[in-house]
Amino acid sequence: MSPNAEGRSATAPSDEAGENPLLRLRGISKSFGPVRALTDVDLDILAGKVTALAGDNGAGKSVLIKCIAGIHAPTSGEMWWDGRHVHIESPRDAAALGIETVYQDLALCDNLDIVENMFLGRERTRRAALDQESMEHSALDTLKSLAVTSVKSIRQPVASLSGGQRQSVAIAKAVLWNSKLVIMDEPTAALGVAQTAMVLQLVRRLADRGVAVLIVSHNMNDVFEVADRIAVLHLGRMVAVRPIEELDRQIVVDLMTTGQSTRVAQPRPSRE
Ligand SMILES: Nc1ncnc2c1ncn2[C@@H]1O[C@H](COP(=O)(O)OP(=O)(O)OP(=O)(O)O)[C@@H](O)[C@H]1O
C-alpha cells in the first residue's frame, strides 16, 4: 500500500451527513480495455452499519468490491481509509487495513477443520510447535461470542458443515482477526430459510460490534432485513446511496433497472 503519490497528507473531503466514514471512495472508475465497468463511483462505508450493494447483473458490483479488496486496480479515483488517503494495491494491502472479503464458495478450505481454517496462514506457535490449545480456545470463544452454537466440534472439517455454518465460520474468522470492514458476496445465495435467518443475524451482530459490513445481494428480502443503507449501481454508475428508511423494494428495483425512481417510500414497520 503506498501513500498518495504526491506525498501530501490529504484528508478526506467531509461528508454531508457529518459522519466520518471508515472507507470513502470518490470518482472510482474501472475499465477493462474498451469495457467501462465503473464510472465515477462515490461511496462512503460506515463503521457499525450494514451497507447493501445492489444492482442488476453486470452493474459492476463484483468489480467494485474487487477494487476495495485489492484485486482490481481502479483506472482512476481515490480512496480514504479512516480519513487517510490510501492506495489498495493488493489483497495483502486490504488485509493489512482490516478488510476481509467473504466470497460465497471460496471463503474456507474444505479439507481443513474449523480451527485450521480460522487460523490459516496466521497459526500460533509455542516452542516451535503449533499451539493447538490456544488456537482452539480462541476459535471457540469467538464462535461463542457470536452465539454460533450449532457446530458440533471445532475440529470438524468444514466440508461436513452446512452452508449456513460455513458462512458463520467465515464471519467468526473475520471477528477473530479484528477485521474492520467485512465484504460479503451473496452470503445467503445457497441457503435455505432457517440458515439465511441465522446468517443475517450474524451479519447484524457484526455491525453491532462496530464492524462496517458491505453486503452484495440480489435478494431484496435479505437486503431489507439486514441493511441500514443501500447503494445501487446501474450500468457502472452509483445512482443512489440512501438509508433504508427512505427506500422500499419497488424504489430499489426501479433504481436497479432504470437508474432512477420517482416513488416516495411507503412507511413500514421498523426492524426492531
Ligand atoms: N475481468 C474482466 N474483463 C472484462 N470485463 C469485465 C471483467 N470483469 C467484469 N467485467 C465487465 O464489467 C461489468 C461489470 O461486471 P460485474 O461482474 O462487476 O457485474 P455484477 O454487478 O457483479 O453482476 P452479477 O450480479 O451478474 O454478478 C460487466 O460488463 C462485465 O462484463
TrEMBL record:
InterPro entries linked to this entry: AAA+_ATPase (IPR003593), ABC_carbohydrate_import_ATPase (IPR050107), ABC_transporter-like_ATP-bd (IPR003439), P-loop_NTPase (IPR027417)
Keyword Nucleotide-binding carried by entry: yes
Alphabetical UniProt keywords: ATP-binding, Nucleotide-binding
Gene3D superfamilies assigned to the protein according to its UniProt record, in alphabetical order: P-loop containing nucleotide triphosphate hydrolases
One Gene Ontology molecular-function label: ATP binding
Domain ABC transporter: residue ranges: 23-260
Pfam families to which the protein is assigned, alphabetical: ABC_tran
Protein name, per record: D-xylose transport system permease protein/D-xylose transport system ATP-binding protein
UniProt organism field: Pedococcus cremeus
